[in-house]
UniProtKB/TrEMBL annotation, chains A, B:
GO MF terms held by the record: L-alanine:2-oxoglutarate aminotransferase activity; pyridoxal phosphate binding
Pathway(s) the chain acts in: Amino-acid degradation; L-alanine degradation via transaminase pathway; pyruvate from L-alanine: step 1/1
The Aminotransferase class I/classII large domain, residue ranges: 120-483
GO cellular component terms attached to this protein's record: cytoplasm
Protein name in UniProt: alanine transaminase
GO biological process, one term: L-alanine catabolic process
A matching Pfam family: Aminotran_1_2
Family classification: Belongs to the class-I pyridoxal-phosphate-dependent aminotransferase family. Alanine aminotransferase subfamily.
């Protein structure tokens, strides 16, 4: 039956009619259309174009594009932690167990992980919540981190990076057809995974604004305000916290965390605590407090009732192993029947990547002082974290010396989120072009200097304030050059749009 | 403010009141509740319980649980392909480039992959669609597989296993608030990822039944019937095909594929072709035909218009690398604007795991006859595929010799899906227990023999027919024992419920 058609058609290839497609912008799931994800948005596509243009011999006022848009440490030249890679390589190719160039400390960890894998192979599926011995190591790590607060390994679920865990938990909470009545409280500015997930699930984004004038601290009164306002049109069910903050770099005080947990308790909110930067604290007067430990210290009434999920990842900290897509979540006080539903949902995707699970295991079970590998491991770790602390300080100092830029201290995480003054003339020009003023600013910065940063509008900000997010990950030398270029660009941008040129 | 409460509470831990939870079975997203995933369902949880019981010294009529429920080759003792693991280990720990025990063929591949990674590290994020050189290798592989049919690397998207790709494409197609009017045509029996995804997205599952009496072939008339019936209550927009079939083991003929594509063309359906078992064809009279190649051969009217996505994976074939979560999809004729939306959606999850991408690269770019590593690679590959072919035949033969079991030939993939006769008395007993008759059967099989297989009801089957799915992955010796036990169990089950005992 097709043969006739076929022979008719082969001669008239050029006459093939334009047939309407099944999947078009009109028929596409509108919730997908609504998703925005600035960290890899239009500015990053533009950066890619410029990179290709340079590669093909094109010329620009700069020789390379510096991608300060994403927390991708290795891409910025950070070296992997040797011990972590040794363990994962041993798991991948167990013949290396016979190699004298691999340390015994790494070998026994690799053996132990493989013992937990089906057929002793990284190529088998794990149970959907992850390899059992890795879950146990994570629980032990959490107990140590939280100075004895108990952690049950059956509450630990390995994930494909933290993003996967966050999406999964939101999927449980955002209620199908009623989605547009489910409120999800998120900080503004926020990491745009949250807004993207909320759009995709058609839930209601409930913004609570962080206090820029107070180092981006979370203000409990603002939380109350946001909640009460949201209750007029939806049912807020979950509060998301990012601590240390992305993009703000703020590290929350214990008192602040207590207030949030008390609020969640009073209002019956499910707490999602994004703690992927827990090892990235630089300011000497700041310390990471886990939501779980603070909850425990608030007493049994709280610790036995507030539903809390905390997320961690291999991608940040001192390892920066983004490509392994490793992570975990600890789930506290979840209804046992709901937990069974969570396991079912995870099982549809089978399991997180085993190499990422192995990488996570090294992070929670690193070399101990009595082990031979400790010294090198400790040196590498300190070197990464020391450099990050230095870069955090440097970034804040240089940016604050620029007229029209104000940058809060980078207390933790991997980003600066400076406020930039954009002259009214530039704001008008942007509006005429149908873009956000900080998008215009960042596009100009990219085109004139090759520096790729993300407009503040991608993270959310108060009306008529403008920011950008940049990572502090480039090497000190490169960061110095980068910040110098930002300063020069900013001054000339101000001049241009203030009519001083 | 909390301190008072805290000191009050610490003394009355035991008196903590039961506070209502935020997330309960009543408030859980009902679409999550609706999800079913038999491959890791209740029978597998039961198998885990029995395993733990045995480990703790409990006794059963058997000494081990054999998990024939999931296509997890390495867990069943299949050895990894050496060359693949060498390349991934080199990428993970590039210091091994200096090791004389790694072949040059593996080293240059690893170097090339790392060249394509940010900072030359597997620890950096890749572009969301995957590492560029790997996408190019995949396109070259497809062109070779399809004897010259062009493949554009920009149509290739790496995924986190095939499941991730399938979910992502369905997410584009199933239209938000209108979801319950979007029909997704799937074969029955099917791989339950499809029904799970449809439940989660609240779309309409449109069943087309495969023809058991004709080796589970797809019958075009049945496709028309299912489509017309579905049109009464929804808009069928997509047709899913699994070829070679899971769980059926059927390999589709070229004629059959032409008919499906013609049907999709006429009815404007988006085609999702799950081709993860493309390397797993055993029957001498069968051959894998890719949907894309057949579409091409139908002429430009078809090849330039039918929207088609094909999925592949590292988890199956001769590598069986499930734990790496590698995979890709090739997207044909997708509207360019929709493609941009796809990239945006993928970017929210950042990227698929890099080790899985590297594993995928080895599969599409294996050692060539002129390379030193070819011989060993080829031996290992042939050994795995040869054994699978033998096991496919063995399974069919032994099962068909059992009265009350009828098994179609396992032409491809990794499973047998035999039809089992269940006596009316057993059917009644199952109904009284509120379970499917084949669930009762499989639970009894597990409890009496330690063999874990999945009831046919988890995949879908015609009313009043019963099946189970078992993998053919155990070693020949183990498979012989397993099939013998199934035979003995079946005979005694028949006796028991036919009142002959």
């Amino acid at each position: 039956m097709n043969n006739n058609k076929k022979s008719n058609m082969t001669n008239i290839w050029c006459m093939v009619p334009m047939r309407e497609k099944t999947l078009t912008m009109d028929t596409l799931n509108p919730q997908v259309k609504a998703v925005e994800y600035a960290v890899r948005g239009p500015i990053v596509l533009k950066a890619g174009e410029i990179e290709r243009y340079l590669e093909e011999g094109g010329t620009k006022p700069f020789s390379e594009v510096i991608k300060a848009n994403i927390g991708d440490a290795h891409a910025m030249g950070q070296q992997p932690i040797t011990f972590l890679r040794q363990v994962v390589a041993l798991c991948t190719f167990p013949e290396l167990m016979d190699s004298p160039s691999f340390p015994e400390d790494a070998k026994w960890r690799a053996r132990r992980i493989l013992q937990g894998c089906g057929g002793h192979s990284l190529g088998s599926y794990s149970a959907s919540p992850g390899v059992e011995c890795i879950r146990k190591d994570i629980a032990a790590y959490i107990e140590q981190r939280d100075e004895g607060v108990p952690s049950d390994w059956e509450n630990i679920y390995l994930t494909t990076g933290a993003s996967d865990g966050i999406m999964t938990i939101l999927r449980l909470l955002v209620s199908g057809k009623d989605s547009s009545r489910t409120g999800v409280m998120i900080p503004i500015p926020q990491y745009p995974l949250y807004s993207a997930a909320i759009s995709e699930m058609d839930a209601v984004q409930v913004n609570y604004y962080l206090d820029e004038d107070n180092c981006w601290a979370l203000d409990i009164n603002e939380l109350h305000r946001a909640y009460q306002a949201a209750k007029q049109h939806c049912q807020p069910r979950v509060i998301c916290i990012i601590n240390p903050g992305n993009p703000t770099g703020q590290v929350q005080s214990k008192k602040c965390i207590e207030e949030v947990l008390h609020f969640a308790y009073e209002e019956n909110l499910f707490v999602m605590s994004d703690e992927v930067y827990q090892d990235n604290v630089y300011a000497p007067d700041c310390q990471f407090h886990s939501f779980k430990k603070v909850l425990y210290e608030m007493g049994p009434e709280y610790f036995s009732s507030v539903e809390l999920v905390s997320f961690h990842s291999t991608s940040k900290g001192y390892t920066g192993e983004c490509g392994f897509r490793g992570g975990y979540m600890e789930v506290i006080n979840m209804d046992p029947e709901v937990k069974a539903q969570l396991v079912k949902l995870l099982s549809v995707r089978l399991c997180p990547p085993l190499a990422g699970q192995a990488a996570m295991d090294v992070i929670v079970n690193p070399p101990q002082p009595e082990e031979h590998t400790f010294k090198q491991f400790h040196q590498e770790k300190s070197s990464v974290l020391g450099a990050l602390a230095e870069k955090a300080k440097l970034t804040e100092q240089i940016l604050n010396a620029v007229p029209g830029i104000k940058c809060n201290p980078v207390q933790g995480a991997m980003y600066a989120f400076p406020r930039i003054f954009i002259p009214p003339k530039a704001v008008e020009e942007a509006k005429a072009l149908g873009m956000q003023p900080d998008m215009l600013y960042c596009l100009r910065l990219l085109e004139e200097t090759g520096i790729c940063v993300v407009p503040g509008s991608g993270f959310g900000q108060k009306d008529r304030t403008y920011h950008f997010r940049m990572t502090i990950l480039p090497s000190i030398e490169k960061l110095n050059v980068l910040l110098g270029k930002v300063r020069d660009f900013h001054i000339s941008f101000l001049k241009e749009y203030s009519g001083l040129e």
